[in-house]
Amino acid sequence: MGDPTGEPGSSMHGVTGREQSFAFSVASPIVHTDKTAKFDLPVDTEHKATVFKLFSFSKPHMRTFHLSWISFSTCFVSTFAAAPLVPIIRENLNLTKQDIGNAGVASVSGSIFSRLVMGAVCDLLGPRYGCAFLVMLSAPTVFSMSFVSGAAGFITVRFMIGFCLATFVSCQYWMSTMFNSQIIGLVNGTAAGWGNMGGGITQLLMPVVYEIIRRAGASAFTAWRIAFFVPGWLHIIMGILVLTLGQDLPDGNRAALEKAGEVAKDKFGKIMWYAVTNYRTWIFVLLYGYSMGVELSTDNVIAEYFFDRFHLKLHTAGLIAACFGMANFFARPAGGWASDFSAKYFGMRGRLWTLWIIQTAGGLFCVWLGRANTLVTAVVAMVLFSLGAQAACGATFAIVPFVSRRALGIISGLTGAGGNFGSGLTQLLFFSTNQFTTEEGLTWMGVMIVGCTLPVAFIHFPQWGSMFLPPSKDPVKSTEEHYYASEWTEQEKQKNMHQGSLRFAENAKSEGGRRVRSAATPPDSTPNNV
Amino acid sequence: MMAKDHTLYQDLTCTQFFHQKSIFLLPKFPNSTMTIHTLLFVSLLIFSFIESSRGGNKDRLFTELQNLLEVTAKPVQDVIVLEAGKDMVTIKWKLKSSGKVDADATFKTIQVKLCYAPISQVDRPWRKTHNELFKDKTCPHEIVSKPYDKTPQSLDWTVDLDIPTGTYFVRAYGIDGDGQEVAYGQSSDEGRTKNLFSVQAISGGHVSLDIASILFSVFSVVSLLVFFVKEKKKAKLEQRE
């Protein structure tokens, strides 16, 4: 319900983070502020906030933001809660390296499917209930860690906990009901980045909780089980907060959702076709698997790596591992910013180069991490690697909205799923077998990142060019209108169904770079309907 | 206009001050942030260099140690598998009679450790045997560490609660005054296949833990459903009005 037109995939609008990365507020005269509405923040005619005030908890908009990102972060905490405790768990459950690796793969696989279902759930129940249902129904999976007695149980429970990462969808969806589409990019990008931080918070939280419980007298093999109660309680607390403090829409709960008979204006099959047949979609699926994917893989292996390789205490290893995930706080938005900055001067070609440079740099630092023999060099390499990978995530979603206007939601969803798939693949290849030690696995993962980032060079937009090729010289094909209108058939164009795409094309002309911007585009023209 | 000139003048004097007072051969940076960044980076490099050059004593090898001690480890009760936290092992160690009489002159401390047999090391690289002593992970669990006594020693040791399930033997290291291992002895043979004993770890689970987790899980699901039903009822009532 984020988009009043109710298009399939509209729930993913705003996921992309490119829209107005700079913008904290909407300056466009096109958006009419509703001055009669009594909210703490200025709102538009749909009562969506037009200003993003980070440190406010005002009802309902900013409150939604904080409830949303914190519940998403909680799910990251519980999904990766086992990772820093693996040195203890592996002894209790008598796990082999394969078991640990398989559990890591399982933890990221579940959400590939749950994220796809979550969109439908949000359409059906609304994002508030979608989030609350997922968070509270996955609390039992977290608590069931206390029953686990062997490898099979461990892998199963990690798989089940992993389903809750679908809160990503409810988080972004909920935000798009509360924030105007002109600032939704920054809002959603911040929420996604801060949510991902949970993967870092857990690396520090769980060992500290474990230590406290141990000092209180519990044996090692009991203490880690008790420690899992903490993420479980967080699920319950956040679920209750979301239910009691949250609301579906700026004006209240569910009233507008009772709009029966809202016909979907676009057909799912058609959108799917345009998403799947656009070759750029698949390049981004691959790319995101090697930015977000390697981030998730590293969340799973890094604490154990530092514990074993450098003979650190559990909480010291956890502290270092936490630095990896916590860098998301600024690294992901910084990637989006870098992309926007390069677009100002070089347009889309600048964005592509920025993405390639950042992601390749991340890959090289990952290689360095694998080859680092001393603690200090390993930490430095790890931090630089985290900045590269996470900024690349931000830079990826700075380009994705330009791939397609009609199929944006599905492409965003596929890209996100690609991230989880890439994570499962790298864990399976490099961290689950005896063929590689963990340091060798990290090195080869870095090499694979560099290799799998090369396809960025193949992303070519006829109207803007690619990394090595200039825009097409053909007077028809080199227009933005042609590219975005080509997703509609002649029949659909006759029905004027493509008007949204044309408006988007007009606003996307700024991706031509500096000479285009200075030539024709007015300074405050921005995409206002993604 | 006046204010602008004033600040410019201030900037110039600050720079001059810095140049006059700086006794270090620092490059002239346009602002202090760059200075701080460079200092941090340089100190990082220096520390890395120091760390990496601290090779030295780390390279002592296990194969350099002499097998001077005779160690035996037998379960107190004749059971197939020892239970962690309950069953006991009698560990005895003394200097080998076949060696020189004063071979143990350098021993200051004796450290007795519980070690993994090869079968428990399969597919578990965190228990791997390395020749370099500082890297070796074969014997992570310490049983006892005490000043060296020339007389034969015996100890009845209860298997700790945090010992994992596996197959083990016992090794004793003779350590000199500098904390360096100089000799060893183990209860098994060189290939570590004989005289092993098995331990079954505690599960770590408790009934109270299971009950608590069930209670909280039920609470989570039930409270969600209660909320949902209550709100639906309220919405229905409101619709009727």
Automatic annotation (TrEMBL), chain A:
InterPro entries: MFS (IPR011701), MFS_trans_sf (IPR036259), NO3_transporter (IPR044772). It is a multi-pass membrane protein. Its main location: membrane. The lineage of its organism: Eukaryota, Viridiplantae, Streptophyta, Embryophyta, Tracheophyta. It comes from Camelina sativa (False flax). Pfam families: MFS_1. Gene3D superfamilies: MFS general substrate transporter like domains. This is High-affinity nitrate transporter 2.1-like. Keywords: Membrane, Transmembrane, Transmembrane helix. It is found in: Membrane. The chain crosses the membrane at residues 67-88, 129-148, 154-174, 186-206, 226-245, 271-290, 310-331, 352-370, 376-400, 407-430, 442-461. SUPFAM superfamilies: MFS general substrate transporter.
Automatic annotation (TrEMBL), chain B:
The keyword Transmembrane helix applies. Keywords: Membrane, Transmembrane, Transmembrane helix. The chain crosses the membrane at residues 207-229. It holds the Pfam family NAR2. This is High-affinity nitrate transporter 3.2-like isoform X1. It comes from Camelina sativa. The lineage of its organism: Eukaryota, Viridiplantae, Streptophyta, Embryophyta, Tracheophyta.
